[in-house]
Structure formats: structure tokens, C-alpha cells
Design goal:
Strand content: 35-45%
Distance between the termini: 31 Å
Helix content: 10-25%
Low-confidence stretches: 1-7
Mean pLDDT: 92
Oligomer: single chain
Order of helices and strands: HHEEHEEEE
Number of strands: 6
Largest sheet: 6 strands, antiparallel
Radius of gyration: 15 Å
Length: about 150
């Protein structure tokens, strides 16, 4: 077993359970839906609608970063022990190509470092046709709950 699959304390949790916990939050407002949860890999989709677009109908970079941070944050939370929580401390994204209103983007997050106090995630965001929209690096701090 490699570092990516060790210590998955939330094994068996479904995307439906996760999505229900986000009702009324930013993720719900943006239409983010988690679709796949695996140790070290997590996926979500977001519709490219007016609420996440710039005035001229292209996906807003800020919504893209919010999607990436949500994916990385949920990914880290699934790897955390019950007495731990994840908090984002750094995000860096490169926007490669546009996504247009009416499409749906898919974010694929993979963990590239799972340390005791930090997790580093890479999130690639694609159009429904598989075109790369953005690639984002997120660093999460792993904190003990008080």
C-alpha cells in the first residue's frame, strides 16, 4: 500500500452524503457536486452557468479556483482523522483555456503530498469535451480540532 491509500478513515462515505453536507454553502451556491471519492483522488463537477461566469459568458477564474479549493479541501478532509480538520493555506492556478456558459466542468484532484501537517493537491479542471481549462495547486494545513 502506498502513501496515497494509507489511512483513509472515511472509507465507504458516498458522494451523496458529502453533497448533502454542503447544502446552503458556497459549494451549493456554485452548483458543485462531488462525483467520485477515493483515497488520494476526488472528482466534482460544476455547471458553467451565469452565476459562475464573467459578463461575456466565460467561466470566471475565481469560480474555477473555488471549485479547485473545494475539491482539495474535501479530499483532505476524507484523509483526516476524526480529531483533525483541513484548512487551505495556499492556492495557485493557471487558466489555460475558456469554458463557455452551457457547459459543465469536471475537476479531478489528486494528492501529491500527504504529510502529517500538510497536504498538497493538484486539481485539473476540464470541459465536458475533455479540454483542459485550468490546473491548480492547493496546499492544506492539517489542524487538530479543539
Amino acid at each position: 500500500m502506498d502513501n496515497k491509500t494509507q489511512n483513509f478513515p472515511h472509507e465507504g462515505i458516498s458522494p451523496e452524503v458529502i453533497n448533502n453536507t454542503y447544502l446552503g454553502t458556497l459549494m451549493d451556491t456554485l452548483g458543485i457536486t462531488f462525483t467520485n471519492l477515493c483515497p488520494g483522488r476526488i472528482e466534482a463537477v460544476m455547471p458553467v452557468e451565469k452565476r459562475v461566469c464573467q459578463p461575456f459568458g466565460l467561466l470566471h477564474g475565481g469560480a474555477t479556483l473555488a471549485l479547485a479549493e473545494s475539491v482539495a479541501g474535501q479530499g483532505s478532509m476524507l484523509l483526516c482523522e476524526p480529531d483533525e480538520a483541513a484548512a487551505g493555506i495556499q492556492v495557485s492556478g493557471s487558466h489555460i483555456s475558456p469554458a463557455k456558459a452551457g457547459d459543465e466542468v469536471r475537476a479531478v484532484g489528486t494528492i501529491i503530498h500527504k504529510g502529517r501537517t500538510t497536504h498538497v493537491w493538484n486539481i485539473d479542471i476540464f470541459t465536458s469535451a475533455g479540454k483542459l481549462v485550468s490546473t491548480v495547486r492547493v496546499v492544506n494545513s492539517i489542524l487538530k480540532r479543539r
